[in-house]
């Protein structure tokens, strides 16, 4: 194995909550069986190539702070190969079952489309080779259709059809590569699918383009027999102030409009939820209620900053409620938990990156275990089902089955002389139940 900045680290192991070793898992015991499946198959953790291997700590006020030695490794392909060598060593250290990439993360762009695709194919070959000697698999691939200046006015929503065609060619190749590498999903995040000013924007035209593009992606998926899920990742703003894929509800109505709701699911990101004025659990519950939950991008934002800070998660309360909804929705597989998160720019050592993932994995594992316990305990479910118990009566069921109209219901209400009484929502009681389980050492 080539020597990389991660090679000297031992593979992080589960040592339990009492361990003093900072680079061990306290809650993430990959082989612990919960609800008939090992934790690793429920959570399906992935490393995000872009944040962990590419991002160098720049922000709008300062340049790179994080050394990435592979960027000094020679020509662009040699650099990309050195980066891949380090990536697979990082996956080995974390013992994560999955990783995710954008085309531009794994292969250097070039001046022409043909050369860019040639570089991409060279690197997909290389990743395929690496995957033969490491156990980490591909959770999803995606295309970066937002960084290069050609995408400044959007990708599929660009006023220039040649940009649309460039995007079509790129996504076709990314889908082929995702299939070849055994990917479980393919993601589309509409980086610049939005607008800067309405004054130069034909919104109707742009949404038609976006719908046609997604339809073509789904058609191609079937043409090549890719069995993975197609996922759209909502985000309300940043880079543009108005992104078309605002949140789960907006994306779902877009999918309905283009008859894609049975073909495409959602990849929900914690901080994107926050930027939309929601919580992570709200977005997960919304997707679950629409049968559209696909996969999760795990991170957190900073409500005081309001930027997409992509920090590693540490909010057990929100993550536990999120996991309750994930379990109730039947789990994530073939989706997973991708750490779309980056270390802070002062955290420039390889060890910082490992601490970040260890903490994130432990948080998700602890949240998942707590959520499973709460569901198994049954008290929360009972409170909720008692709350809606009235709907089980035959009169109430008749409302649902269309057997009662508005005027019939008026007659029924008057005949019965109904007089509904307030009932407690029991919120504090439920919150106590949750807090006690979150802080319980019986997990
Ligand atoms: C951007 C973001 C992306 C997508 C993939 O905020 O989350 O990294 O996850 O393009
Ligand atoms: Co994301």
Quick overview:
The protein is of the alpha/beta class and 443 residues long. 46% of the residues lie in helices and 11% in strands.
Fold topology:
Elements: E1 33-34, E2 37-38, H1 39-43, E3 45-48, H2 49-54, H3 76-94, E4 98-102, H4 103-106, H5 113-133, E5 137-142, H6 161-180, E6 185-189, E7 194-195, H7 203-224, E8 229-233, E9 242-243, H8 248-257, E10 264-269, H9 270-275, H10 280-289, E11 293-297, H11 316-328, E12 337-339, H12 350-377, H13 379-387, H14 394-400, H15 406-415, H16 427-438
Parallel strand pairs: 3-4, 3-12, 4-5, 5-6, 6-8, 8-10, 10-11, 11-12
Antiparallel strand pairs: 1-2, 7-9
Helix pairs in contact: 3-5, 5-6, 6-7, 10-11, 11-12
Bound molecules: D-xylulose and cobalt (II) ion.
Task: Please give a handful of descriptors for the protein shown.
binds cobalt (II) ion; alpha/beta; 443 residues; 46% helix; 16 helices; binds D-xylulose
What does this structure look like?
This protein has 443 residues and is an alpha/beta fold. The chain folds into 2 domains: 33-377, TIM Barrel (Alpha-Beta Barrel), CATH 3.20.20; 380-438, no CATH class. It is built from 16 helices and 12 strands. The strands form 3 sheets. It has an 8-stranded parallel barrel, surrounded by 5 helices. A two-stranded antiparallel sheet has the order 1-2. Strands 7-9 form a two-stranded antiparallel sheet. The protein is globular and about 85 Å long. Cobalt (II) ion binds at residues 189, 233, 269, 297, 340.
């Amino acid at each position: 194995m080539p020597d990389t900045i991660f090679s000297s680290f031992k593979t992080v192991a589960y040592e339990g909550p009492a361990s003093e070793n900072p680079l061990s898992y306290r809650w993430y015991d990959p082989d612990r069986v919960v609800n008939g499946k090992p934790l690793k198959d429920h959570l399906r953790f992935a490393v995000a190539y872009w944040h962990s291997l590419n991002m160098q700590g720049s922000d709008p006020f300062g340049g790179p702070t994080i050394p990435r030695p592979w960027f000094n490794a020679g020509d662009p392909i040699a650099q990309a190969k050195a980066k891949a060598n380090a990536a697979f060593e990082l996956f080995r250290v974390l013992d994560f079952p999955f990783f995710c990439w954008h085309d531009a993360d794994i292969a250097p762009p070039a001046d022409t489309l043909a050369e860019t695709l040639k570089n991409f194919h060279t690197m997909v070959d290389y990743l395929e080779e690496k995957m033969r000697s490491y156990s980490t698999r591909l959770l999803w691939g995606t295309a970066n259709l937002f960084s290069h200046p050609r995408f400044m006015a959007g990708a599929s929503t660009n006023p220039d059809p040649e940009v649309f065609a460039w995007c079509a060619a790129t996504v076709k190749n990314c889908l082929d590569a995702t299939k070849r590498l055994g990917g479980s999903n393919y993601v589309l995040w509409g980086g610049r699918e939005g607008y800067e000013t309405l004054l130069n924007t034909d919104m109707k035209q742009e949404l038609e383009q976006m719908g046609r593009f997604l339809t073509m992606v789904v058609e191609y998926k079937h043409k090549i027999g890719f069995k993975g899920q197609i996922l759209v990742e909502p985000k309300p703003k940043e880079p543009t102030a108005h992104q078309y894929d605002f949140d789960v509800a907006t994306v779902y109505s877009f999918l309905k409009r283009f008859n894609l709701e049975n073909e495409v699911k959602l990849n929900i990101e914690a901080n994107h939820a926050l930027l939309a004025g929601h919580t992570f659990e709200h977005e997960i519950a919304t997707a679950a209620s629409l049968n559209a939950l696909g996969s999760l991008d795990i991170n957190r934002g900073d409500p005081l900053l309001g930027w997409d800070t992509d920090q590693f998660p540490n909010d057990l309360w929100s993550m536990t409620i999120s996991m309750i909804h994930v379990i109730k929705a039947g789990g994530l597989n073939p989706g997973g938990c991708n750490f779309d998160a980056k270390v802070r720019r002062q955290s420039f050592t390889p060890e910082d990156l490992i601490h970040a993932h260890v903490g994130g994995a432990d948080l998700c594992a602890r949240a998942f275990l707590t959520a499973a316990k709460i569901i198994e305990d049954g008290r929360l479910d009972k409170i909720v089902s008692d709350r809606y118990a009235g709907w089980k009566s035959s009169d109430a069921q008749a409302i649902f089955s269309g057997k009662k109209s508005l005027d019939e219901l008026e007659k029924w209400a008057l005949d019965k002389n109904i007089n509904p009484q307030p009932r407690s929502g029991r919120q504090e009681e439920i919150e106590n139940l949750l807090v006690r389980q979150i802080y319980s050492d019986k997990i």
